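#help-structures
NK: newbie question, is this the right format to request a structure? protein is NADH pyrophosphatase NudC (Nudix superfamily)
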Amino acid sequence: MKHNTKDKVLKWINEQFSFFQFDSDPVYKTTLYFKLDNPEYDPEIEVYVRKTTEEMEFGFEATQWDGYMPAPYPSIYPKYSTPLDSLRSLEEEEMKEKILELLMKTINSRKRQYRKCQFCGKRVAAEHRFDKSTCHRCASEHFGIVY
């Protein structure tokens, strides 16, 4: 499975390579998203690559629950970054390898946050679980929890 994911990520990097190159054009897209299409994960894993003026950042976005009566709000979780100057100094293939390495580390970091629900069997992100082994949906169905 890892090899398959790595192949998909490398294909995506090649398709999006113009994003990773450094144009003098100030109007360019600054964030790209890579979705790991795997129905086993709920929600599907999606990571981002964000280019700033100084670095390339790799991370993911997820819901965070906060407050006395917890309410969901979107949050950004940067995991890794690399200075643009160091990427600029690399040959094209070396640059692709570095981006692949950081994307794979980000994907694997996010994957480790998922656990299998004891009832439905889906791998669920931490922010969508009632406890370590029950997703919100199944907690509502089996324990009467209201979200």
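mod (FA): yep, format's fine, and the tokens are attached above. DSSP finds five helices and nine strands in the chain.
NK: thank you!
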